[in-house]
């Protein structure tokens, strides 16, 4: 039985929904701390102070204090701002030379050269802040490579610090393809920790791999879905660090993300032109017409509309989607794609749009409002990912009665119940394909098209099945609490 002891949890994240966001990590960094707080735990988030956070500060009361951190020869003087996300306190690390930039990790084209020193500093600062607040955490919950140096620092240079005597660390993998690999020399204070490094933490000679440092030193590791955790333990799915995952397999598990139904519910979504729910889908037709009008597509209720909201990156399966769409757009269909990221993919999408201007609309960029409009206005949602640690947008599309068309990998496999090959719906919630081939995707798109055109009742059942499904953060938070408890030292 899980103890009901209330825990102190320090949650480190480099993006948080409502403050600064590039993708799904931000959704989790807001929803999970809030769900843990609702369960009675004392959670504090630490994140960098980007200009976007400064905007938010104007609306929020804040404490303001100054700290000084000596790292090697460098003395960092930085500020901490306190804000609130609902009931959760957020401490934001204000060091303008590192964080006063519009892009979080890159300038829109290239990753910043100093990302290694930026996020190594951030991890160290978080460990200092928690001491200055006299908040001795039971758990430090780190997320992805950006904060993976915190367990490493704790295990090495802070090993004798009594303040952290009872503290345990969890590293959550939202995307292990990004590992944070840097020339050691690019981190000006690397002499401070170089003696703790071995070839296991390094790559290509003199490069440090932050994710490896975290994987080797965190007390427990988890991936954001059970299937992604299993894939990381295979040669194909391990992002080239199989031996490390195998080495830690006893401390390694998968916990499925949840869906924030306060933000993603078509019955209460104030961004939509018309509300609707599982029992009355009429408003969805209005949302479709509104989306068509907004993006400039012909307002045709009978033409199926396929939507996609995504970061533009190889992970999301664009090299399957583009050739499949090239042929699929010959059909009577409409496609709306919203996203930002790699310029080459944006160029390819623009080129396809130029070929089918009255059928395909690509909008480069992202706003929360347009994401909601696509989720509500589309008939199907596209997510043909190469790999997908969990995926949140397919959960949103299920909630919005927009059946997802996904590849059966990672969290997509764990969240979408496939329409059978004979076309029967039963308890299915979407279409799922396996082979990473454009033809396999095209086959599925054609099946989805046929269902929409020829079997409206079955299509409606598919929509309603998905809308009835729930991925509650409450459940996810309980799973994290069980894992936290496994990690704690027995009470003194
Ligand atoms: N161009 C863009 N700019 C800003 N926001 C955008 C965007 N495109 C989409 N979004 C928004 O970001 C979120 C995307 O989350 P996902 O989980 O689907 O993918 P992502 O790969 O970013 O997340 C990673 O982390 C999450 C969280 O663990 C995992 O679910 C996922 O599998 C993993 O790849 C959604 O809220 C979406 O609306």
UniProtKB/TrEMBL annotation:
Domain Starch synthase catalytic: 8-241
Residues that coordinate or bind ADP-alpha-D-glucose: 21
Keyword Transmembrane helix carried by entry: no
Superkingdom of origin: Bacteria
Catalytic activity: [(1->4)-alpha-D-glucosyl](n) + ADP-alpha-D-glucose = [(1->4)-alpha-D-glucosyl](n+1) + ADP + H(+)
Molecular functions per Gene Ontology: alpha-1,4-glucan glucosyltransferase (ADP-glucose donor) activity
Keywords assigned: Glycogen biosynthesis, Glycosyltransferase, Transferase
Listed pathway(s): Glycan biosynthesis; glycogen biosynthesis
InterPro entries cross-referenced by the UniProt entry: Glyco_trans_1, GS/SS, Starch_synth_cat_dom
Domain Glycosyl transferase family: 300-451
Alphabetical list of Gene3D superfamilies matching this protein: Glycogen Phosphorylase B
Coiled coil: none
EC number from the UniProt entry: 2.4.1.21
Function: Synthesizes alpha-1,4-glucan chains using ADP-glucose.
Record NCBIfam families: glgA, PRK00654.2-2
Family label: Belongs to the glycosyltransferase 1 family. Bacterial/plant glycogen synthase subfamily.
Listed name of the protein: Glycogen synthase
């Amino acid at each position: 039985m899980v103890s009901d002891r209330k825990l102190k949890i320090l949650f480190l994240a480099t993006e948080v929904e409502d403050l600064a966001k590039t993708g799904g990590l931000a959704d989790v960094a807001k929803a999970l701390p809030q769900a843990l707080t609702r369960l009675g735990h004392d959670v504090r988030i630490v994140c960098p102070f980007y200009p976007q956070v400064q905007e938010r500060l104007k609306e929020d009361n804040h404490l303001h204090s100054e700290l000084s951190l000596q790292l090697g020869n460098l003395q960092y003087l930085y500020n901490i701002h306190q804000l609130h996300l609902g009931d959760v306190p957020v401490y934001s690390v204000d060091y303008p030379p590192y964080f006063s930039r519009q892009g979080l990790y890159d300038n829109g084209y290239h990753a910043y050269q100093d990302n290694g020193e930026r996020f190594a500093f951030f991890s160290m600062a978080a460990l200092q802040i928690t001491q200055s607040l006299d908040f001795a955490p039971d758990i430090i919950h780190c997320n992805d490579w950006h904060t993976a140096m915190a367990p490493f620092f704790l295990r090495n240079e802070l090993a004798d610090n009594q303040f952290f005597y009872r503290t345990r660390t969890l590293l959550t993998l939202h995307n292990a393809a990004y590992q944070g690999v840097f020339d050691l020399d690019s981190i000006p204070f690397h002499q401070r920790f170089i003696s703790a490094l071995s070839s296991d933490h390094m790559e290509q000679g003199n490069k440090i791999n932050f994710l490896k440092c975290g994987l080797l030193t965190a007390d427990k590791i988890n991936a954001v879905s059970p299937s992604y955790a299993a894939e990381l333990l295979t040669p194909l799915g391990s992002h080239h660090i199989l031996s490390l995952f195998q080495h830690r397999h006893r401390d390694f598990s998968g916990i499925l993300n949840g869906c924030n139904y306060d933000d993603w519910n078509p019955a209460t979504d104030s961004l939509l032109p018309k509300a609707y729910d599982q029992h009355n889908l009429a408003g969805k037709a209005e949302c479709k017409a509104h989306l068509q009008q907004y993006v400039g597509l012909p307002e045709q209720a009978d033409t199926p509309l396929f939507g996609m909201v995504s970061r533009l990156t190889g992970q999301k399966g664009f090299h399957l989607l583009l050739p499949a769409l090239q042929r699929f757009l010959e059909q009577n269909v409409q496609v709306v794609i919203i996203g930002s990221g790699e310029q080459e993919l944006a160029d390819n999408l623009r080129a396809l749009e130029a070929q089918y201007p009255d059928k395909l609309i690509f909008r480069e960029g992202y706003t929360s409002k347009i994401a909601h409009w696509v989720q509500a206005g589309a008939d199907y949602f596209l997510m043909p990912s190469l790999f997908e640690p969990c995926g949140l947008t397919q959960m949103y599309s299920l909630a919005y009665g927009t059946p997802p068309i996904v590849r059966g990998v990672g969290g997509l496999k764990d969240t979408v119940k496939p329409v059978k090959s004979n076309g029967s719906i039963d308890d299915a919630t979407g279409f799922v394909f396996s082979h990473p081939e454009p033809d396999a995707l095209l086959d599925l798109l054609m099946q989805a098209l046929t269902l929409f055109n020829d079997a409206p009742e079955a299509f409606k059942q598919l929509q309603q099945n998905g809308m009835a499904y729930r991925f509650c953060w409450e459940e996810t938070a309980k799973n994290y609490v069980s894992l936290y408890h496994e990690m704690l030292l027995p009470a003194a």
